[in-house]
Amino acid sequence: MLKRTITAIVAFAVFFPFLYFSGTFMLPLAMTILGLAAAYEMVGCVGLRKNVWIAVPSYLTAIVLPWLARMSEEPLTPVFAVCIVYMITVFAATVFSRGKLDFTVASSAFTGVFYVTVAFTSIVFLRDAGKYFYLLVFLGPWVSDTFAYLCGRLFGKHKLIPEVSPKKTVEGSIGGIVFAGISFIIYAVVIKNFFDASAAPNYLVMMIAGMIVSVISQIGDLIASVIKRRFGIKDYGWIFPGHGGVLDRFDSVLLTAPVLWILSQIPAFSGIIF
Questions:
Q1: CA distance 199 to 189
Q2: CB–CB of 23/127 below 8 Å?
Q3: Rg from Cα positions in the chain
Q4: Residue of 239, 255, 243 lying closest to 38 (CA atoms)
Q5: CA 129 to CA 25: how far, in whole Å?
Q6: How far apart, in whole angstroms, are the C-alpha atoms of residue 239 and residue 14?
Q7: Shortest CA distance to 252 belongs to which of 117, 65, 119, 105?
Q8: How far apart, in whole angstroms, are the C-alpha atoms of residue 243 and residue 241?
Q9: Which run of H or E residues covers position 254?
Q10: Is the CB of residue 65 less than 8 Å from the CB of residue 35?
């Protein structure tokens, strides 16, 4: 527990400048680093790091997408184009391997890398949607994770999905959802009163958004667990002592980022933009 706490503090200290200067090149740089590390872990998870026709396009996709999201005038078009090229490259590799590359494994690599790179790219999109808004992609999942764990320890009696994650409970899940919703309200109050007096967040919408984010983040956590069980690994990596790899630390953020970006595009949720 001490190692995990120390790692979290050190990681935040390293990551903070990238967040503080998120309006500059620092944020896409951070998302590139995280995305590249996550792609490396995912390709390694499926056992294809030595296959250059899968590994190299995967790493290049992780490097390119965050910069396209920030630098392009209409970023969705080039981001989509790169994803299509990446898909064609991976599937073509299975064809020209003459049976040496299993299509199922290659598809797993493509799906996994697409998932993580689009997630980190979505954080850049979120930052461009609002100066303070994008931080919710970290706040929601991590508050949800923390209180799901605490509520599970204190009140947990009913297993959530023991076949995927034996320790998670229904009570813990509910606790995470409730406190994530509350955390979004508190965050909005702090931003309005200490950082941006012109902000006018809708607090009911903020709570609903927080609860939705919690549900999505818990699904993201379970997705990461399913993948690890499928490929028989304990952790994706080692970069964060006590936590594992980037995918172990950001598993609940990955699915949240694109979903929160979609919510930001819906008029009914315009109250969460600030």
A1: 9
A2: yes
A3: 19
A4: 239
A5: 16
A6: 13
A7: 119
A8: 5
A9: helix 251-264
A10: yes
Sign of CA dihedral 235, 42, 35, 135: negative
d(CA 106, CA 91): 7
Contact 211, 177 (CB under 8 A): yes
Q: How far apart are CA 271 and CA 206, in angstroms?
A: 7
> Which residue has 């590249």 as its token pair?
36
Q: How far apart are CA 31 and CA 37, in angstroms?
A: 10
- Which pair of structure tokens corresponds to residue 61? 């996709």
Taking Cα atoms as reference points, which of 128, 139, 132 lies closest to residue 67?
Answer: 128
Taking each helix axis from N to C end, the angle separating 103-129 and 136-155, rounded to the nearest 10 degrees, works out to 110
β-partners of residue 169 are: 159
Measured CA distances, 186 to 4, 52, 172, 215, 268 (Å): 26, 47, 21, 19, 20
CA distance 192 to 8: 27
pLDDT in tens, the chain (274 residues): 555 566 667 767 777 788 788 889 999 999 999 999 999 999 999 999 999 999 999 999 999 999 999 988 788 899 999 999 999 999 999 999 988 899 999 999 999 999 999 999 999 999 988 888 899 999 999 899 999 999 999 998 899 998 888 889 999 999 999 999 999 999 999 999 988 888 888 899 899 999 999 999 999 999 998 998 888 888 888 777 766 789 988 989 999 999 999 888 887 776 677 7
240 three-class SS: strand
The answer to whether residues 140 and 186 touch, using CB atoms and an 8 Å cutoff, is no
Are 32 and 63 a contacting pair, CB within 8 Å?
yes
Give dist(CA 236, CA 223) in Å, integer: 13
- Residues belonging to the chain: 274
